[in-house]
Amino acid sequence: MADVVTLLPPSKIQRNEDNPRLIFRKGDLEALEKSIKEQGILVPLTVFKAGRAYHLLDGERRWRCAIKLGMAHVPVIIQPRPERLQNIMMMFAIHHTRKDWDPLPTALKLQDLEKEFQKRNSRRPTEAELAGLASLSRGEIRRLRKLLNLPESYRTELLQELNKPRSEQILTVDHVLEATTAASLLRSRELVDEKTEDELRRAIIQKFKRGIIKNTVSPRKLARIARAVTRDEVPRDVAKRVIRELIDSPSYDIDSAFRDSVEKVDFEHGIEQQAGRLIEVLDEHLRRAYQPSPILARRLKELVGVLRKVLSGL
Prior knowledge:
There is one protein chain. This protein has helices at about 25-40, 60-70, 85-95, 105-120, 125-135, 140-150, 150-160, 175-190, 195-210, 220-230, 235-250, 255-260, 265-285, 295-310; strands at about 5-10, 15, 45-50, 55-60, 75-80. A hairpin with a 2-residue loop joins strand 3 and strand 4. With about 325 residues, the protein is of the alpha/beta class. It has four domains: about 1-80, Conserved hypothetical protein from pyrococcus furiosus pfu- 392566-001, ParB domain; about 85-95 and about 100-165, no CATH class; about 170-260, no CATH class; about 265-310, no CATH class. Helix 4 packs across helix 6 (about 140-150).
């Protein structure tokens, strides 16, 4: 049986407090408003009744536009009132494939979903259970949980950024997560303490905002510095010096820190690994008693020439 479409005044409808979407951008609403003004609401809103009011399950942007346009009625499909856990699950299920869903508001609502599950089942949901409840992948769940672990000040800053028009937004969730992951790794390797970890994260975020650091994944180079220290290829005091420079110098970027500490060592480490693999395949070539082809013989002679140049200063 097809769903029955009813007409309701927008004033009798309220937003759903469990909608993970908190950000409604002006430009997107204006485009939708123009479409509704010209063609009307083509897809009915989905609501449920609680008391005298109707609450949205799907269609908040259409509802907002209808109010702004002064529409007397909007088409709706009325569904049975869900329990809160089911309500949050439905909001995720209805909206998770929609574009422009911002990660941080979604993460905050995911926290509510987890609490409702725990209230009903007296335990926290597993990652797999939470993914099923929210209609998300486990990878998305892990990413959203990382956002929930951010200090409150960073979450507030990201929400403020999300409320700006897209053209004015600079700082993204990925910027903050990359900075956080890099700083946390350096602390785990005892290259920074708790205070310095936050100073470094803040410095990287500020440099993202000011355009000093342009590549979102640049902080991953700090992990390569940490690994070089662990392998005793870079002195610990050198790594700490460039980290301090990143914090204190407004114009010093991660590429400079990498160059000043580990670039040569990291490059040579890659050569060392490739040389090892080449030795293994050449040994295998000898074991098989193959005769080198003319092309291979020429390339190996070129290699010998390059090696002599590299080793000439030793």
